[in-house]
Amino acid sequence: MIFENRLTEGRLIKRYKRFLADVELPDGSVVVAHCANSGSMLGCKEPGSRVYLSPNTNPKAKLDWRWEMVEVDGHLVGINTSHPNKLAEEAILGGVIPELSGYASLRREVKYGQNSRIDILLEEPEKTGAANQCFVEVKNVTLRVGNDAQFPDAVTARGTKHLRELMDMVAEGHRAVMLYLVQRGDCLSFAPATDIDPTYAATLKEAIEAGVETLCYVCDLSTDGIRVDRPMSLGF
Questions:
Q1: Cα separation, 211 vs 115, whole angstroms
Q2: Alpha-carbon distance 34 to 13, whole Å?
Q3: What does the DSSP assignment read for the chain?
Q4: H or E element: which one contains 54?
Q5: Torsion from C-alpha of 32, 37, 39, 43, nearest 10 degrees
Q6: For residue 3, is it within any domain?
Q7: Does residue 1 fall inside a structural domain?
Q8: Is 55 inside any structural domain?
Q9: Which terminus in the chain has less CB density within 10 A, N or C?
Q10: pLDDT by residue (tens digit) across 10-35?
Q11: pTM score, whole prediction
């Protein structure tokens, strides 16, 4: 994924009301940027951090800027949660995630389960029955604890619901995959954030035992763009 416009560097003043961030630009002016991240952003919202914004070209948008990345200990971290589904789609179609290759079609945001939408639905019409579909849920990972990338960074009842719906798909005979995209390059392995949301961590373990596949890939980030790079080991 290449950014359509050159990113603008700034310094974070504060993130507030979940979806807003005050940022000081190099000329000393202060702008309000949209923060497309509903999590706590633990470790990624320190005042004074170097951040990167993209101009909001949507004429209907209320804000002129979108917060894309933050620099943490010299490493870029992608905090915009509107990107992972697109990143996953590009990676699957480009053969970067071989575990998800070989399907004839890919659709995003398809209704399924209990009033939910699956992030990516892979289908192979030549296969018969339920086995011709693969349900892929994608999560953005920004939290680092020690050497681990961890998810979630806040209690997520919604995330737990998604795991249970993936289990339901497996029970119906489908393939179901939980895909974690780590948008930072300074972690060695992935693990659920048991200390933050023990219910989610326990449900993930239950989902794996029920047949839900778990994949984790780390992204390569630059101010030019973001791409899925390589698999990351699971540390649990």
A1: 22
A2: 14
A3: -B-SS--EEEEEEEEETTTEEEEE-TTS-EEEEE----S--TTS--TT-EEEEEE---TT-S-SEEEEEEEETTEEEE--TTSHHHHHHHHHHTTS-GGG---SEEEEEEEETTTEEEEEEEE-TTS-GGGGEEEEEEEEE-EEETTEEEE-SS--HHHHHHHHHHHHHHHTT-EEEEEEEE--SS-SEEEE-TTT-HHHHHHHHHHHHTT-EEEEEEEEE-SSBEEEEEE-EE--
A4: strand 50-55
A5: -70
A6: no
A7: no
A8: yes
A9: C
A10: 999 999 999 999 999 999 999 999 99
A11: 0.94
- 17 and 94, same domain (yes or no): no
Torsion over CA: 13, 16, 22, 23 (sign)? positive
- Which CATH number characterizes residue 28's domain? 2.40.50.580
For the cut 70, the answer to whether the pLDDT of residue 127 exceeds it is no
Q: What is the DSSP string of 164-199?
A: HHHHHHHHTT-EEEEEEEE--SS-SEEEE-TTT-HH
Q: What is the CATH number of the domain that holds 146?
A: 3.40.1350.60
| Strands 50-55 vs 105-112: parallel, antiparallel or unpaired | unpaired
d(CA 180, CA 81): 12
Which range is least confidently modeled, 35-49, 85-99, 113-127, 151-165?
Answer: 113-127
Write out the two tokens for 35: 């923060």
pLDDT reported for residue 128: 59
Check residue 131 and give its pLDDT: 67
- Residues 103, 39: Cα–Cα separation, whole Å: 32
